[in-house]
Amino acid sequence: MSAMDSSLHQMLERVRAAVGDAAPLRIRGGGSKDFHGMRLQGDVLDMRALQGIVSYEPSELVVTVRAGTPLHELEAALAERGQCLAFEPPHFATAQGDVATVGGMVAAGWSGPARAGVGAVRDFVLGVEIINGKAELLRFGGTVMKNVAGYDVSRLMAGSWGTLGVITEVSLKVLPVAPAEATLRFAGISQADALQRLNQWGGQPLPLNASRWLEEGAAGMLYVRLRGAAAAVEAACQKMGGERMESAQAAIDWIACREQQLPWFQQPRLGDCLWRLSVPPTAPVQPLPAGIAPPLVEWHGALRWVHAPRSMGPQLKAWAQSVGGSATLFRAEIADQMSAEPLFDVKNAALQRIHAQLKQAFDPAGIFNPGRTVE
């Protein structure tokens, strides 16, 4: 038995023992996302033993990777062949050595600035191998060993936070790096004007890839990234106007935005949390009380970050729901503190039933990542 087969076998035995003992397991890759969620419970099931690229077919735009593989290693291998993960997953690596893994990337389902232009993590997941709550090794997508009728399980695992199964292997669609890129900056733009422009541009044949609006100093600043064929990018630059940024600095700034390292993210008031509002891009400017700074807006208006105290949660959630979206406490008031908010606090009764049925189907003993959801 190879070392990798041995590691997988050990994980299966760990899950089997946990089921028998009704002992919860905390599935953990590189720990880069430990800050997010309600609370961490159970014995750690460390995924880092499952590392490596299983297969990579650049001509087919498909890569299969073991779940414990560091995300930066996968991205480096793709870059060598001029390819990438188009949805730009954030890493949130820390000075303490926490690193993002491929399995954690899928389990969290977080996408970066390009989400509005290319799609989400789940749109690029072609197949998964998982250990379910019965200690069975199952594969979905591609060659199906065993299936659960009615579920697109591969995509279902994206954003499930390990509550449905242990992701051991993932097959992903990759894309070539765009041949051309440009970032335009528009100074003195209000949030309302920025949202209006982004919605107008979104209805035109422009190679929009990412955007962000925020206040820098006292001025509103809109940044728009274009990606695509060189001719299309150049034509869009001429049509849209604005100031074209130097490429190297623009690239640094977009990575900083993805990793929440822009000055805006680093300067909350004492006692403020970071809230993530997912809303329709056409949603109007959110009314905020005095003392709350304007948001940082991404995804052409569909993602809005707000620094606000925990006590303002009900107000933020009510507004997001009123426009057809949702609000989540993303980061707690203090670094290294859990947000202490459930990830799947579903209010809709029909959705609650679906969540419960999925949990029962995949993890009947309830051993995977308890505390990530409302009990």
From TrEMBL:
This protein's UniProt keywords: FAD, Flavoprotein
Superkingdom of the organism of origin: Bacteria
Domain FAD-binding PCMH-type: 1-177
Annotated Pfam families: FAD_binding_4
Cited PROSITE patterns: FAD_PCMH
SUPFAM superfamilies in alphabetical order: FAD-binding/transporter-associated domain-like, FAD-linked oxidases, C-terminal domain
Gene3D superfamilies: 3.30.465.10, Vanillyl-alcohol Oxidase, Chain A, domain 4
GO molecular function: catalytic activity; FAD binding
Protein name as annotated: Glycolate oxidase subunit GlcE
